[in-house]
């Protein structure tokens, strides 16, 4: 089987149920999710499995869910069956709550960094935010874009923020606080989650 098809040599690509220009907003959205999935794989390769096996397992599920979400955005058939459901969003929320119980108190803004794996997770978080922004723009411009994908990306960015902090904690690496930050976060157990992101 040849990996190249030459069908995209004129600047178009295939969707599920149609073809579009490669620079279309829909392709940009699911292409950014594909980029995110690659960065997730990099972060997984950098995790210490002795201390972070649970996070590795979370991310393994996330990779499959991102593939589902990207496929849903690429689906333009008249009768569509979307793969990404609300259940993975609920799982992410549960994991965020569990990890927040372990996380150090958060009072100030923190800068991406620390261990290699945590720094990679922060990159994943920012790419997730970009994927979400593009998906929101796509939702404004086209009908029948599954909102589940946007909600999943929103929750995933929260998870990645918390996961990066936990990876640093388990590696005994302190968060890199923004030096000019005031104490902007409340430190109650409930408030820690509420203030992590939106």
Summarize the entry for a quick read.
The protein has helices at 25-46, 49-73, 87-102, 116-141, 147-170, 189-196; strands at residues 12-15, 18-21, 110-111, 176-177. With 198 residues, it is mostly helical.
Write the layout of secondary structure elements.
Layout: E1 12-15, E2 18-21, H1 25-46, H2 49-73, H3 87-102, E3 110-111, H4 116-141, H5 147-170, E4 176-177, H6 189-196
Antiparallel strand pairs: 1-2, 3-4
Helix pairs in contact: 1-2, 1-4, 2-5, 3-5, 4-5
Verbal overview:
This protein has 198 residues and is mostly helical. The chain has a single domain, classed as Cobalamin adenosyltransferase-like (Hypothetical Protein Ta1238, Chain: A, Up-down Bundle). The chain is built from 6 helices and 4 strands. The chain has helices at residues 25-46, 49-73, 87-102, 116-141, 147-170, 189-196; strands spanning 12-15, 18-21, 110-111, 176-177. The chain has a two-stranded antiparallel sheet. The protein is elongated. The model is unreliable at 189-196 (pLDDT under 50).
Q: Please tell me the overall pLDDT.
A: 88
Let me know the number of strands. Answer: 4
* Strand and helix order: EEHHHEHHEH
Q: What's the CATH H-level superfamily name?
A: Cobalamin adenosyltransferase-like
CATH topology, by name, is Hypothetical Protein Ta1238, Chain: A
Low-confidence stretches: 189-196
- What structural class should be given to the helix and strand makeup? mainly alpha
Strands of the biggest beta sheet: in what spatial order? Answer: 1-2
Please tell me the total number of domains: 1
Q: What level of helicity do the residues show?
A: 55-70%
**CATH class type:** Mainly Alpha
Could you describe the largest sheet, including whether it forms a barrel?
2 strands, antiparallel
Gyration radius, in Å: 18 Å
Please give the CATH architecture: Up-down Bundle
């Amino acid at each position: 089987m040849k990996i190249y098809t030459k069908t995209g040599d004129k600047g178009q690509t295939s969707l599920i149920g149609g073809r579009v220009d490669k620079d279309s907003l829909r392709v940009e959205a699911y292409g950014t999710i594909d980029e995110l999935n690659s960065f997730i794989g990099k972060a997984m390769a950098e995790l210490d499995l002795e201390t972070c096996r649970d996070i590795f397992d979370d991310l393994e599920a996330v990779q499959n869910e991102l593939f589902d979400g990207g496929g849903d955005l690429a689906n333009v058939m008249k009768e569509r069956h979307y793969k990404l459901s609300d259940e993975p969003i609920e799982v992410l929320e549960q994991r965020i709550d569990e990890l927040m119980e372990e996380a150090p108190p958060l009072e100030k803004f923190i800068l991406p960094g620390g261990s290699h794996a945590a720094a990679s997770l922060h990159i994943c978080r920012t790419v997730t935010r970009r994927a979400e922004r593009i998906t929101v723009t796509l939702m404004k411009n086209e009908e029948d874009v599954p909102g589940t994908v946007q909600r999943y990306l929103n929750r995933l960015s929260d998870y990645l923020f918390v996961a990066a902090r936990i990876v640093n904690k388990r590696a005994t690496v302190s968060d890199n606080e923004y030096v000019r930050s005031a104490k902007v976060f409340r430190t109650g157990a409930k408030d820690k989650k509420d203030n992590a992101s939106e």
